[in-house]
Design brief:
Length: about 450
Amino acid sequence: VLEARETIGGGIRTAELTLPGFAHDVCSGCHPMGALSPYFRVLPLAAHGLSWIHPPASVAHPLDRQPAVLLRRSLDETAAELGATGVPGSTSRALPARSRTRSSRISLAPVRVPRHPFRMARFGLQGLLPATTLFRARFRGQRARALMAGCAAHSILPLERPLTAAVGMIFALTGHVVDWPVAAGGSRAIGDALASYLRHLGGTIETDRPVRSLADVPPARVVLFDTNPGQLADIGERVLPAAYVSRLRRYRYGPGAFKIDWALDGPIPWRDPRCLEASTIHLGGTLDEIAAREAAVWRGEHPERPFVLLVQQSQFDPTRAPAGRHTGYAYCHVPAARPSTRPASSSGRSSASRRASATASSRGTSCARRARAGEPELRRRRDHRRRRRPAAVLRRPVLRLDPYSTPNPRLFLCSRRRRRAAACTACAATSRRRSALRSLKRLPERLEPLG
Ligand SMILES: Cc1cc2nc3c(=O)[nH]c(=O)nc-3n(C[C@H](O)[C@H](O)[C@H](O)COP(=O)(O)OP(=O)(O)OC[C@H]3O[C@@H](n4cnc5c(N)ncnc54)[C@H](O)[C@@H]3O)c2cc1C
């Protein structure tokens, strides 16, 4: 493994971003997909130091002038949260427990010919719809619609777009299978456990080793790239067809994220204290409000009160902060190609503080690095229109039967950018491994050096 930075982990690093003794997750903080990943389950990660801490509830969704809605593992307890107008024949309720687990695993896998076509078709037909359409049709009550909209907003897409219902259903479904956990000690524990197991198997990791061309890659039969499509185009230009390279270069990024880390004097003083039971808080109001806020981001606007995702790790993991003190982070989606941090910072903070009082120390980081300053406005807008088509979501960045393969059987593009549907690194790991192993078997014994 070659890692450009001083430390491994990428989005699963944990660092003292605010004050000494406060461990903050740099990007991902909550890992339902990691806990459910079929591949992670076969790795001895617990023996290599990874343990998940499960909160009593996955999500709390505060609403004005009423108690927060909690997504709990129990269907009946969640249904009770939704009130009388909640879940007539909802997707989850229709599935018995075993089937829910299996359905969540199927839906976490990348898009390919499904092994359970009928189950997938039942899920997929509803999932094809925009979240706004399906959730307004399936749920009568504002509380259920808001909860599902918050889950769908993890897609970082306008909720009027096809397939966003699938994202909402998948995230809600995972909450009925596993309470959205945090990693004990910080998300870095996931990377550390993977690294420890890799070394145990004889693998090596070199940090401070940016790969800029194939000459930087040691002799290898296959290479898996955890880079963005543009980087792969630059690195692999010589051994990939020109048309493919040009498609990779045309790949355009959606909105980024603006994140604030907090070192706190105490637990977040939520107006509804039950919010402290959930690892993740969705702050965005009703389905209509969340849909309007996410749509605004895609129009290139900073909404006055954005949809905010907040994680309160130390509530469940005391190792994250000194005794009696706490950590937390919140992020909202921000328009691509407008990496201005001021509006997001102030509006994100105000969204959180409407539901809680002041915080001790905060640090804002613009994760909108995807945003390409200087990109022509016209081109960006054209891309937004293109992405409205469901095919664009599946293509990411180039449509292929084996989603991780490239036209060169020795190169694979395995980063999250490859598939939004895979939702995180962990879920796609099985498929990448299979994809690379299949190719390895087919390759001739003797191969030319790639570089
Ligand atoms: C604010 C925020 C919050 C998030 N919260 C969650 C969450 O709670 N749960 C969740 O599941 N997901 C979450 N995510 C998403 C998650 O962080 C990403 O999906 C995940 O990190 C993507 O993994 P990746 O391996 O594709 O890329 P990365 O995590 O970016 O890893 C890529 C690695 O490759 C290295 N690299 C890249 N190019 C080169 C090169 N040319 N040479 C050498 N090394 C290179 C990088 O330095 C990095 O270490 C969040 C994201 C953000 C921004």
